[in-house]
Design a protein that fits this description.
Strand content of chain B: 25-35%
Number of helices of chain A: 11
Number of strands of chain A: 0
Mean pLDDT of chain A: 90
Radius of gyration of chain B: 19 Å
Number of strands of chain B: 10
CATH superfamily of the largest domain in chain A: MetI-like
Low-confidence stretches of chain B: 1-8
Mean pLDDT of chain B: 89
Distance between the termini of chain B: 21 Å
Largest sheet of chain A: none
Strand order of the largest sheet of chain B: 5-4-1-2-10-9-3-8-7-6
CATH architecture of the largest domain in chain A: Orthogonal Bundle
Order of helices and strands of chain B: EEEHEEHEHHHHEHEHEEHH
CATH class of one domain in chain B: Alpha Beta
Largest sheet of chain B: 10 strands, mixed
Order of helices and strands of chain A: HHHHHHHHHHH
Structural class of chain A: mainly alpha
Largest interface: A-B, 23 and 26 residues
Oligomer: heterodimer
CATH topology of the largest domain in chain A: MetI-like fold
Number of domains of chain A: 2
Chain lengths: 317, 267
């Protein structure tokens, strides 16, 4: 502990309570540290339980079967565990979602940051972010009772539960994320670069296309990858609107038909956890194996996004 | 207030008539009249907030990129009213180039920084040749000729600023505006840029805003001194206090405020 230097001065009208403030600093340090640790510990606990149960699963079902079976029928008497049935369905709905969210998201981000007058932007951006607050169960029913009938009227062969409707609405659901993060990236491009471009006789479109967007590219790609991770992990919309129909992987690629019902990783987990699979039964362990797969996939996407943003970020100083 | 009419034996590139600039309801600059003679370096001096950068940005219509800015009055550029509705600001900036306070090269290669404005403006000749010529004009060629593919941001601050000057020169502007081009640079880089400005003044007409009075007296032939009024509310507006040859402004100013400023008593 340091000496109280104030005491050594001849006139000491100042008596700071150093002891007390040292103790309160220490308590605050420990308290806040404990809460920070708690959230990390929770995450670690979740991952640990996933791993432990997944290991239990792979003691019964060989890893090769998990990867190479062509059907996903864990609840049948003669079960098959081809997880790629679920992965393909997940990737299909996510791809449909991204084909909506990426173009709409980036274009609206460009509009918001480059074209919208500041007063409009102040309204529009929060409004866009409110869209992200719509509960996904609402999106799910919107897909099922509003979008699906329209699709059925337009496209022949669309089932009541189908991947297309779920994917499209999921695209709307992740649009705010993609738009908002892309807008942040575009807005972060220094104003001096835009001015530099304009001062050379470029039009607004040329300045955006050749100077602003290349500068924001890493952030935009990062936003798209995060959108992908969100789409892969999205649960309610696909559970409600895409059905529970794991399609066998056939060479005719019929399992990639977006008009029919599919089962994603998330909707399988919902299906089993809602049913009455007894603890420690193989059905029960299956959801941990699928959960582990899902977690790995989204983790990889997040790492990818993080890496991309940092690796290709332009440093302007 | 009587403005000393500059005695200039040269063509006028640009003349400003009764120009006032507002940001929202705030009057930044009031009733400016001055003309920029060809092949001269004209310096704008004055303390912060007196509107000299604002005026500079009006000269190539960069000011309208600031939301809420309004320009009243007229700017005549070789017989054309710059603010006429038929005039496209992109064309204006194509003719009247600008170098900024902080170097702002694009995050592209050194070569591409120069080649981009050349291409975008539809140059019909040899792009590579013009890139080299522009870099030579900006006294940068010898330092970068072996690393044209490198990112421009890897250059030093002074080199970046000369690259920005090269970029502005590349599209062969009629008039070059410089907004405190040395304020972010060290003394050695500053000296190089000043030397460069003197060389360029043989070919180009240059308007430079500077806080550095020695710089103004070193590089310019004409000087405009801007000042601020302050009313009771404390919010003054900028105005052109005196305009004349640099020699006259620094040795025999007509007004006391100018004398105080150039002698270093205020500002």
């Amino acid at each position: 502990m340091s000496e109280n230097l104030a005491v050594s001065r001849p006139v000491s009208r100042w008596k700071p309570q150093r002891k007390l403030s040292q103790w309160s600093e220490r308590i605050v340090y420990c308290l806040f540290g404990a809460f920070a640790l708690l959230s990390i510990a929770t995450t670690a606990g979740i991952i640990a339980s996933l791993i432990v149960e997944a290991i239990e699963f792979f003691k019964v079902v060989p890893f090769t079967q998990f990867l190479f079976d062509r059907e996903w029928t864990p609840l049948f008497a003669n079960p098959q565990y081809g997880v790629f049935v679920l992965i393909f369905a997940t990737l299909m709905t996510a791809t449909i979602a991204l084909s909506v969210a990426i173009p709409l998201g980036i274009l609206s981000a460009i509009y918001l940051s480059e074209y919208a007058p500041p007063r409009l932007r102040r309204w529009l951006k929060p409004a866009l972010e409110i869209l992200a607050g719509i509960p996904s169960v609402v999106h799910g029913y919107f897909a099922l009772i509003f979008v699906t009938p329209i699709l059925q009227a337009l496209i022949p062969g669309v089932e009541v539960f189908n991947a297309l409707s779920a994917g499209l609405v999921m695209g709307i659901a992740i649009l705010p994320l993609v738009a908002s993060l892309s807008e942040d990236a575009i807005f972060a491009v220094p104003q001096s670069l835009r001015q530099g471009a304009y001062a050379l006789g470029t039009t607004r479109r040329e300045a955006i296309q050749n100077v602003v967007l290349p500068g924001a590219l890493s952030g935009i790609v990062g936003a798209c990858i995060l959108g992908m991770a969100r789409a892969v992990g999205e649960t309610m919309i696909v559970t409600i609107a895409a059905g529970q129909n794991p399609r066998p992987i056939n060479p005719d690629l019929s399992f990639l038909d977006p008009r029919i019902s599919v089962q994603t990783m998330t909707s399988f987990i919902v299906q089993v956890s809602q049913g009455d699979a007894p603890v420690n039964s193989i059905e029960y362990k299956t959801i941990f194996a699928v959960g582990m797969t899902l977690f790995t996939l989204t983790l990889l996407l997040n790492i990818c996004s993080f890496w991309f943003v940092n690796r290709f970020r332009e440093k302007y100083e | 207030m009587s403005l000393t009419a500059p005695i200039v034996d040269t063509e006028t590139v640009l003349s400003v008539e009764n120009l006032s600039v507002y940001y929202g309801n705030f009057l930044a600059l009031k009733d400016v009249n001055l003309s920029i003679p060809q092949h001269y370096v004209t310096a704008f001096i004055g303390s912060s907030g007196c509107g000299k950068s604002t005026l500079l940005r009006c000269l190539n219509r960069m000011n309208e990129l600031i939301f809420g800015s309004r320009v009243l009055g007229k700017i005549n550029y070789r017989g054309t009213d710059l603010y006429a509705p038929t005039v496209d600001p992109v064309d204006v900036r194509r003719q009247i180039g600008m170098v900024f306070q902080k170097p702002n090269p694009f995050p592209k290669s050194i070569y591409e920084n120069i080649a981009y404005p050349i291409r975008i403006n539809g140059y019909q000749g040899d792009v590579e040749e013009l890139v080299e010529q522009s870099l030579r004009d900006a006294a940068l060629w010898d330092e970068v000729k072996d690393k044209l593919k490198q990112n421009a941001l890897s250059l030093s601050g002074g080199q970046q600023q000369r690259l920005c000057i090269a970029r502005a020169l590349a599209i062969e502007p009629d008039l070059l505006l410089m907004d405190e081009p040395c304020s972010a640079l060290d003394p050695i880089s500053t000296a190089r840029i000043e030397e460069l400005i003197q060389q360029l003044s043989q070919q180009y007409t240059i308007v430079i805003v500077t806080h550095n009075m020695q710089q103004a007296s070193r590089v310019s032939q004409m000087t405009a001194f801007f000042n601020t009024t302050s009313d009771e509310a404390g919010s003054g507006h900028g105005y052109l206090a005196e305009y004349g040859s640099t020699e006259q402004i620094f040795s025999d100013p007509a007004q006391d405020v100018t004398r105080d400023y150039v002698s270093g008593r205020v500002g």
